[in-house]
Amino acid sequence: MADCSAICVATCVAMELMESSDDESNFLLESDRKDRHKTQDFFEWTVPRYFPDMFKKFFRISPQSFELVCQLLGANEQLAKRTYRGGRQEIPLEKKVMIVLRYLASQETILGISDRFNITVSTFTKYREKVVNAINDLLPRFVQWPEELDSVAIKFNEMGTYEFQNIIGAIDGSHIPIEQPLECPNSYYNRKKFHSVILQAVCKDDLSFVNICVGMPGRCHDAKAFKHSHLSEIGDELCRQGQYHILGDAAYALMRWLITPFRDNGNLTREQYNFNKFLSSKRQVIERAFALLKGRFRRLKYVSIRDIKCICKIISACCVLHNICLQSDEDIAEFIDAEIDELDANLGGELSSECRQWRRYLEEKQSNYRIKQSQQLINDNKHYFNFEMLFKQIHP
Is the pLDDT confidence value at 228 over 60? Predict the structure, then answer.
């Protein structure tokens, strides 16, 4: 009888201890949840005090382009402001766009971005999907084939030192490094020994994309990626039955509207060699476009997502933003020059003559951009820059 009573007492004590330990663990969990402090007022206080150059370094687009993007996305139903029915206030549109821009502009972790903007990881994931989808809805408007092909061909011919008549653009593919996908990972493992998806694009002389195709596995050859793209079917029609052309490298097949170099088997004539040299010089505009894209949106240097569909949406959204920024006449030298420096480091300091020529072109363009910005500043503030009165004070 005594043994039974002792067992009962021990059982009661054990249950009390278990309950107390559960209460303590719940208290610790609640206290941990409450003690996780995130950055306060970064969007509300810090960002508005950024100078334009600091804003551009942090989000990789200018404040003017940011305002334009917000205006374009404001009419999208996915980002429309809902009717307030109590609870937490909805995040402003500008903050949603800024969160996604910071994600695309850097390799910062999702947790770090969420902490910076004082939101949860789940909230970040939700608005990343909505904003990226809304940007992709702008794809037909900002990534479209030009209509005035004559003017495009003239500008393309004036680019560089060599002449190519009736050329409207250049085509190439670029590997976007990704995390090993969930489905068919071997198909995305390319010859460069990393997982990737292929971004095929055609660009004009101003580095803007006029046609893109995203999503082919990295193991595919550029020729196969081109064969499975819609451009291979409609390219002849877009180029008006061979009246205009685009330039490609040796990976592509020669077509009426697609010009490729002569295959070098060691017996090229002088004319064929020069033709290949001139074509390569002109075709490098697409390489510069890719350098600018990846230099501005550094998320494309490695996309740590395993869902291929989501990856493709992010890449195409970056292409849309790339064109929006170019249409806003932004200074591009700081983005693309960093890519050239990285290439120079990889080559041991031995840049090709074409790359050095491109660097000089960037320096000249950057100088012209600064002069244009200064003139615009003077025109906007004429009441501060009264040069006539200043001249009379100096020379009475």
Answer: yes
